[in-house]
Design brief:
Elements: H1 2-18, H2 24-34, H3 36-51, H4 54-57, E1 62-74, E2 80-96, H5 100-166, H6 172-207, H7 231-241, H8 243-263, E3 269-281, E4 286-297, H9 305-370, H10 376-410
Antiparallel strand pairs: 1-2, 2-3, 3-4
């Protein structure tokens, strides 16, 4: 049995030694590389980039090649069969169409830039979610430590009551109450193991780690809150760097380019065409030739043109209104988050003071209990008061961190967690 225990301990130590503690930046880097939603977003960005070519805009000519065979039966000449082959190459090139080609090319380039912005938006949403879950796991680990300490205290109390009961200085009621409290703390500790596993699995899901049972060791063991954020700096960065706001600006530019494309109908168009066609009759002579020409045209009347212009102008106005609405919404969101952030900081400071008081009360209660000057129920109240104080400060730390993460995201600074 001694050898078996030694082997198990050695294996556990080797396992823990082989597990590298990961920083938040390393967790994010792994997720950015593996997450499937981000891979989809990058592919969609690549599609937008592939479409942004001169050929798609219409700058280049179109060239078509064709070939064919035909046969005829002359019923008036004894059913004689005639054969023919045709082949040709034809090209058409739009030299000018009222700047529509230029507008289309600019639109494709703007869609390319918007694709990059949307990828950035997806990445920032992902980093915010992953960072929140990272600190949630830290929160669950801290809670596990607090509950484990509570179990140790309850176990020690149970041991003391058992000794006192054995010599007749404690009642059976005291013994049963100590046993109930120990069992309750042990049950809560077991439930906390499940919550830790759930958070770890959620983190692995976000990181696209296939083996959910792989041990995960985090370098951070406490939740450190950034208290140096300032409202004016956050507001300035939000108006300049927020990805959603940048996306709205792309929408305005696209609406302006659509209007420019609609205005191109007020100009004439010029097209150049050229081709070579060859015909050959079986049993006869073949002939071929080059043809070319220039086509100039102007759309004299189109009943839909005026309506389309008006709608295009309204699309620009709506895109700008959507931007203004988003700016107002971002200001409101920032104000709400800032208020919650400052309030949580004050609450955190208060709870830290309460924790010191709870620790002192628990120490005094434990000393009095050891001297037999305090009942088991009163000792339990002091222990529960300490556990409640630890829980409140933990919740305050995590809620403050969530506010910090949201403020970083809305101001376009979420990638600082990669530093």
């Amino acid at each position: 049995m001694k050898i078996s225990k030694f082997i198990l301990i050695a294996l556990a130590l080797c396992s823990s030694a082989g597990t590298k503690a990961q920083t938040l930046a390393e967790v994010i880097a792994t997720g950015l590389e593996n997450n499937y939603n981000l891979k989809i977003a990058r592919n969609e960005e690549a599609i937008s980039a592939n479409n942004a070519t001169a050929a798609n805009a219409g700058y280049l000519p179109t060239v078509n090649a064709s070939a064919g065979y035909s046969g005829t039966v002359d019923t008036g000449n004894g059913g004689q069969l005639g054969h023919g082959l045709q082949a040709g190459v034809n090209a058409e090139w739009t030299l000018f169409d009222g700047f529509k080609i230029q507008a289309t090319y600019s639109k494709l380039q703007e869609l390319k830039r918007q694709g990059a912005t949307r990828t950035r938006l997806a990445i920032e949403d992902y980093v915010a979610t992953l960072t929140a879950e990272y600190y949630n796991l830290i929160q669950q680990k801290i809670r596990m430590r607090n509950l484990s300490n509570a179990v140790k205290l309850s176990k020690e109390r149970l041991r003391i009551v058992l000794e006192r009961y054995s010599i007749g200085s404690a009642s059976r009621l005291d013994l049963q109450q100590a046993q109930v409290d120990f069992n309750a703390d042990s049950a809560q500790s077991l439930k906390q193991h499940e919550l830790m596993a759930t958070s770890r699995i959620r983190l692995y899901e976000l990181m696209a780690v296939k083996d959910m049972q792989t041990p995960l060791s985090l370098q951070d063991t406490i939740i450190v809150v950034d208290t140096a954020l300032t409202h004016d700096n956050l507001l300035e960065h939000t108006m300049d760097l927020n990805a959603e706001l940048l996306n709205r600006k792309h929408d305005i530019r696209l609406a302006e380019l659509d209007y420019k494309a609609t205005m191109s109908r007020d100009f004439p168009y010029i097209k150049l065409n050229a081709g070579y066609n060859y015909q050959h009759s079986i049993g006869g002579d073949g002939r071929g030739g080059v043809d070319f020409g220039v086509k100039v045209g102007y759309n004299l009347f189109d009943g839909k043109r005026t309506t389309q212009k008006r709608n295009a102008r309204l699309d620009i106005e709506n895109a700008d209104l959507a931007r203004l609405q988003l700016e107002q919404s971002l200001r409101a969101d920032l104000a709400d988050l800032w208020q919650a952030y400052k309030n949580n900081l004050r609450l955190l400071s208060l709870e830290r003071e309460n924790l010191i008081t709870a620790q002192e009360n628990h120490y005094i209660a434990h000393e009095r209990y050891m001297l037999g000057d305090l009942s088991g129920i009163e000792m339990r109240e002091a222990q529960q008061s300490l556990l409640d104080a630890e829980e409140r400060i933990l919740v305050a730390e995590y809620n403050t961190k969530l506010c910090e993460i949201s403020l970083r995201q809305i101001s376009g600074e979420i990638m600082r967690y990669m530093e």
